[in-house]
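Running low. Got one?
___
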Amino acid sequence: MTKHSAASTRSPWTGLMPVDDTAPAVTDTDGPGIPVLHLNGHVATQGYWRRVIAEPGTGRRHLTYDMRARGRS
């Protein structure tokens, strides 16, 4: 496994991703490291992950989404 220490120079991508009959709001930090998918609980939104994502820094790629009828979805 390779450790990436360089931070990504690109900004996070946020938008709606069409899937079947819905379009969940998705955020991709586009970090240089291993992708980590953060799954929400029943009533949670992407906002719950902001502090969790900030703590380990930019060494990973973080993906979050809002389930149907939650947050920005």
